[in-house]
Amino acid sequence: MATTKELSVEDKLRALYDLQLIDTRIDEIRNVRGELPLEVEDLEDEVAGLSTRLEKLQQDLVTIEESIKTKKNNVDDHQIAIKRYTEQQKEVRNNREFNSLTKEIEFQELEIQLAEKQIKELKASIEHKKEVIASSKEKLDEKTNHLKHKKSELSDIMAETQKEEAFLIEKSAEYEALIEDRLLAAYKRIRSSVRNGLAVVSIERGASAGSFFTIPPQTQVEIASRKKIITDEHSGRILVDTVLADEEKEKMEQLFSNM
Length: 259
What we know:
single chain; mainly alpha; 78% helix; 4% strand
């Protein structure tokens, strides 16, 4: 094929329209996937977040159980101390020593009461944590299954379209290489600014495709002559005549059918 510098205006128009047809086909493939890749990504983040939360809840449960064990050991220590102080009271020589040991016993009893209260609270916390863990596991299982389904759905679509998309992306790059930088930049700018991504359109019933604004007959003649690049004054899109468009569509259909 001719190099960029050797392209006539007509060749430029054909290359631009071919590029548009290829890029539109890529858009169609990606539209089939729609928001599914983002949905899968969001679900993956959600599953990861739920897994992390569940791990933390389970670790909290272990920590609480360890705290209960420590409190119970403390109660045993306080009971041993009470027993020791009670035995010492039997051997005291005066009231001052007896009263001092009594205070120690009372202190140990208060410590036991406090520890038992804390153990009761920790056990209640365990029951609450277990309920939250069960609920979190259920939610995690639900989201994991949903993610598995969506991944399978995306995988099926990717398997059907990946090869075609890779081929089209390669062809898009080939046709871009045929177009001078200034014109290619204009094409990409227009394409990014319109909702349907159509930067190059043909004339249909006296107007640019997708537009209700009629193109003056003299302008239509100029477009058909293919002597210069003409844009639609209303949409800014690059215009090609119907004959050229039909010829390039047929050519591209053959290209697509050979994939």
